[in-house]
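Researcher: Structure prediction, please.
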Amino acid sequence: MPDWTDLHAHIHRLLKARQLLPQGSHCLVAVSGGQDSMALLKLLWDLRPKWGWRVVVAHANHRWRADAEANASFVETWCRDHGISCDTVTAAQPPSSEAAARQWRYDQFHQLARYHGCTRVATGHTATDRAETLLYNLMRGSGADGLQALTWQRPLQPAAPLPIVLVRPLLAITRAETVAFCRQQGLPHWQDCTNQDRAYARNRIRLDLLPYLAEQFNPRVEHTLAQTAEVLAAEVAYLETMVDSLYASVVEADAGGRPRRLHRPPLQVSHVALQRRLIRRVLQQRQIAQVGFEQVAKVVHLITAPHRSQSDPLPGGAIARVDGDWIRFIDPDCA
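Model: Predicted structure follows.
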């Protein structure tokens, strides 16, 4: 067993408490080569004998940077030197955005996990990432769902018949702690030059905003924001269970399973928080691309509006109209 550090003990206890990687799990570890993912790989590899895990590594080459091939080679070489299986996936074309890159990356991880028989995919997201995400989404006007977006675990592909779980074992530690661990262990990592590019909003949050908040307001701001996200995650989960129950008494779907009308009386006696959450879910199920506060508010208003009241056109052209005790969705070709 390698040297047992405080961080090894912390992660070991956390994994016991949260059951992110049960005994004997087969785990695909996503490794970019940066300090967080290298720290994660080292920790899981060192803890492997205690848990009986089978660990394999996946590296995603987005072809965004001139050093992308060298970055991939660094990860592959380190894994080979330590007897760890490593697969690199390379994008046919560089993704057009961060969102597209994330979707491509997770699609690839899902395929590799299935190929290797893994039921878990582990990523190196930290408390610092959680704090950055909360601030980023707060400034974009996100609700509680966006503010708690980085959770300990979630389905990697929710619609997949054989669910593979995405887990984030480092969410309780900061990036400064992974830096200290890498230094203590003599663990090399790859410097991604794009992490210093202030053209990206997330980099400005990490490089400028969080240090300012730590200096001027709260030295433990990263931990505090991460704990706030944890509180919100529990509250969102509770609200979702309540919406599940309300949904069954409110929503009537068409033959294709898409909501076509809503029964108003149960909504009228429900809290506005549940009204908004249910309406947002319905609009998402109707495949409205941009479901923001304004779109939800247009339909919420109809819960108590007079007969024949209707919304402005929603994205895609449909309108919502009051028909007695019902709110009916009318597509543009049926209006």
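Model: The mean pLDDT is 92.
Researcher: Thanks, that helps.
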